[in-house]
Amino acid sequence: MAHVVVYLQRTTRGPHPGSLVALCLARDVANARGASVLTLCLGDAGGFDDRLIVEASRCGADQIVFLGPEGIQKLFRRLSPRHVFAPYTREAGSVLAQAGIGPMVGRWIGGPADNPNKLEPVIGTIAGTLPWHQAPLHIEPEYEADVTQVELEDWLVTAAEQAADLSTTAEQPPLIYLHAHGGPDADGGSETTLDAETKAALDSIGAHPVSADEYATYQEGTLVWLDASGEGLPLTLVERSPGLRVILLIGEREISGPLDPSWGLADFVLPGKWSEVIGRFGDTPWKSTFV
Q: Domain residues of the chain, as ranges?
């Protein structure tokens, strides 16, 4: 059977959104071609990976494999997958490059593909939507023998330890926003005045403004980046805490042609009128992405 492979990238709040839309895309391709969806991840983070497994199962995985240091190279040599999908991130690009796969073609994914039979072999996905597949399934993962030899990042080691501590309680991370690369003025607003509808929408979800200097101090949270100028995201976001999720709002601009490389720094890139997009964040499906 042919295989569509998806790289499952971890974040402090479960799978990277780019991995989840990649899984949905892979499910569509597999359904159209009679293929199987294989999801892979590196290392073993114990109980922290429970959410990873649940969400990957829901989004269309047929098989979930946690690999050791050499596992990806061996797997690709054995399977010769028809497609490889991964988040459009530095981490995913590096992992695939080590296996001799790539380069990735960056694609913004706002829903099911018009024609799943005409997709590039290796795609880096930028999430422009929540997952559109929600199957009531739970896949039992597989673990390669050398999975514990993968050196986990410090934040992931800490997260795995906390997941094993049943007394640990999680709190709602803060919601913050930055408008047009400006910071708060003396009145608590932003240097470039937001329209009343957008400000009301942000207030309704409990978001508060920060400056470009301030967001770097947050260890956890969701940063809504309101890109009024079309400049994309600054490279300094590479250095942000792993716990700071970024949602880039690009306004009512058409997405066409080559993608802005900086979009790979975001967890989501969402087009549309700001107030309407932010208004949807109060719905239950979106609320779960903030915790």
A: 3-164, 175-290
Pick the CATH number of 175-290 from 3.30.450, 3.30.9, 3.40.50, 3.30.1490: 3.40.50
- Work out the pLDDT band at 159, boundaries 50, 70, 90: very high
pLDDT at site 99: 85
CB 9 within 8 A of CB 92: yes
Is-contact 31 4, C-beta < 8 A?
A: no
Looking up tokens 């989501």 gives: 268
Band the pLDDT of 53: cuts 50, 70, 90. very high
E-state strands within the chain: 3-7, 10-11, 14-15, 36-42, 63-67, 83-87, 105-109, 122-127, 142-143, 175-179, 208-209, 220-226, 243-251, 268-271
DSSP characters over 92-129: HHHHHHHTT--PPEEEEE-SS-S-GGG--SEEEEEE-S
Provide the pLDDT confidence category of residue 168 given band limits of 50, 70 and 90. Answer: low
Give me the pLDDT at residue 242, please.
94
> Within its chain, how far is the Cα of 151 from the centroid?
21
The Cα 70–Cα 59 span in angstroms is: 26
Q: From residue 243, give the alpha-carbon distance in Å to each of 77, 99, 155, 185, 291.
A: 34, 27, 9, 26, 10
Residues 6+ apart with CB under 8 A from 163: 45, 46, 47, 48, 50
What is the DSSP code string of 216-249? GG-SEEEEEEE-SSS----GGGGGS-TEEEEEEE
Q: In this model, does residue 121 exceed pLDDT 50? A: yes
Strands 10-11 and 14-15: antiparallel
Dihedral, CA of residue 124, residue 245, residue 109 and residue 181, to nearest 10:
-100
CATH topology of domain 3-164: Rossmann fold (3.40.50)
